[in-house]
Amino acid sequence: MISKEHITNRFINYVTIDTESDPNSDTTPSTKKQWNLANKLAEELKTIGMQEVSIDENAYVMATLPSNVELDVPTIGFIAHFDTSPDFTGANVNPQIHKNYLGGDILLNKEEQIVLSPDYFEDLRLYIGQTLITTDGTTLLGADDKAGICEIVSAMEYLIKNPEIKHGRIRVGFTPDEEIGRGAHKFDVKKFGADWAYTMDGSQIGELEYENFNAAGAVVNVKGKIVHPGYAKGKMINSMYIATEFINSLPRMETPEHTEGYQGFFHLCAVKGKVEETTLEYIIRDHDRKHFEARKEVMQKLTDELNNQYGSEVIVTEIKDQYYNMREKIEPVLHIVDIAEQAMKEIGITPLIKAIRGGTDGSQLSYMGLPCPNIFAGGHNFHGRYEYVPVESMIKATEVICKIAELTAQKPVN
Ligand SMILES: [Zn+2]
Q1: How does pLDDT run across 202-237, given as a tens digit for each residue?
Q2: 108, CA 20 to 30 Å: which among 86, 125, 315, 366?
Q3: Which structural domain range is residue 230 located in?
Q4: Which family does it belong to (predicted)?
């Protein structure tokens, strides 16, 4: 249906525009350069025949494909982000196309001897015989999430060119700053006006996700007392020792390196300490809301205990919720996951439904009133030099979008 060449060219057009976001910026978008792709996307959406194309003051791009059925069917949306991760440079991306991948090592960069190898990245073996797009080893690729954008635009173009495929009203939305956790922050859910949506921001072909972590961040501040070490007996309070007690009192096996699947954790991200003051930065993650709340309580209790033990407020712990598991919001409308699952099956993809050990823009959007599961965009090894995407997976994702549109138009709004 969609030619490999066409989708490859579109993808390369996007990834060669640098759109790295910046967590240290307060503006939206966080970097000016994101406008370059945002403006281009708005133009392209007009060119392919989309309607109500808009770009707001924060660079959020939206557009509509009007319904072509008489029936009153739901309005659905497809969402992707155009920024790339600040974890690795996204400037001067030089995509390499490897046709008919034979299953061996791919030399990304001869001078620096950077090799993409299936011995390390086993997923590569899933794509033998396919066309892979990789980096040249010096940048990330940006398939996260420009593959998603490419698929959404290609699907809309296909539906416009093939009006015999019946679909309801479709909204598309492209956002800045997802990689710094703000993609949903200024997303105008009301203006978007969809009954539900899908982010096209997953990885491997078949992925379909509607569960993610509940997430909080904790800052533990420990106050000490500095006194001349020669005359400190009974006077000095060394905040680093108290902080160490705090660290060691949390369950050592409930950490990222010891957990998987549905197991939650406390993750100590940073320690900054001297005698007078030590700060611990934690993140707390758990799929289960009760366990999540219990984890926060454990930290608070430990704080109280240590304060009692030292007879004063030596520790202050501040915990802030970051996002919640979208499952709570998706379960009442589980048919939106069923439709995506059915769409995949109908075009010969085995759905891989699993819980995300992280968050997505979709989790925030779900709590903002737009239920929003996540679908694969096809790429692997995000946020680094080994990132790659099989062109065939992008085509399949495009087909999934078209099929979801078609399936949704078969049932009237009830
Ligand atoms: Zn992404």
Answers
A1: 999 999 999 999 999 999 999 999 999 999 999 999
A2: 86
A3: 214-323
A4: Belongs to the peptidase M20B family.
pLDDT score for 360: 83
Q: What is the pLDDT of residues 105-155, one digit of tens each?
A: 999 999 999 999 999 999 999 999 999 999 999 999 999 999 999 999 999
Domain boundary among 323, 344, 369: 323
Whether the bond into 118 is cis, omega within 30 of 0: no
Helices 4-15 and 391-408 cross at an angle (nearest 10°) of: 100
Of the listed 20, 22, 83, 207, which one is catalytic? 83
201 Cα: distance to centroid of ligand 1 (angstroms): 5
Active site residue 178: yes
- Same domain, yes or no: 141 and 152: yes
Tokens representing residue 265 in the block:
């954790």
CA of 213 to the centre of ligand 1 (A): 16
Q: Is the residue at 245 inside a domain? A: yes
46 shares a domain with 20: yes
Q: Which stretches of 250-334 are DSSP H helices?
A: 289-310, 327-330
Cα-to-centroid distance, 96 and ligand 1 (Å): 21
User: Could you give the maximum distance between any two Cα atoms of the chain, in Å?
Assistant: 87
CATH of residue 286's domain is 3.30.70.360
Residue where one domain finishes, among candidates 288, 323, 358: 323
* Average pLDDT for 37-57: 98
Residue 70's pLDDT band, with cuts at 50, 70 and 90, is very high
Q: Is 383 annotated as a binding residue?
A: yes
Phi, psi of 342, deg, nearest 5: -65, -40
